[in-house]
Structure formats: structure tokens, C-alpha cells
Amino acid sequence: METAGNGTGHVRMLLGAYVLGGLSQHEEYAVRAHLHRCAACRAEYDGLAEVPPLLDLLGEDARAGGPDDLAADPGDGGAGA
Ligand SMILES: [Zn+2]
To answer: Which residues contact 18 (CB under 8 A, 6 or more apart)?
Structure first.
């Protein structure tokens, strides 16, 4: 299990996925809450926040292939609504 959201674990390991929007709602909320009270992780996030626009430029070609398949999360309950 991860320590995110426990209040004691830093979320730097999750920041990468956080800025890319790859976290679950629960994880995203935990990271956001942690950033509010942790200057260290906030600084880390500040640097990572510059990455997505760059990936966007680099991934324009890859996007044509259909990122939806890659975005499918098999561990997030495929039962749907
Ligand atoms: Zn932290």
C-alpha cells in the first residue's frame, strides 16, 4: 500500500502521475491536500508542472495512435457504472 494521504508520507513519487493526470480521484485528492501543507513537495511539483506542455509537444505524433488504449486502467474496476 502507498503512504499517500496518511499525512506522514511525502507524495513526490506520485507527483509525476499527478501532473499527467494519471492518478485516481482519491490519490489526486490526497496529493493536492499534501501539497497544501508540504512546501518541499510543492517545490517538487512546481518543477514537474512544467513537464506536461513539453510532453504535449513531443507526443503529438503518439496521440494519433489513440492514447485511450494506454489510459485504460485495468485495476480501476472495469464493471463500469
Ligand atoms: Zn511532502
So the answer is: 11, 27, 28, 31, 45, 48
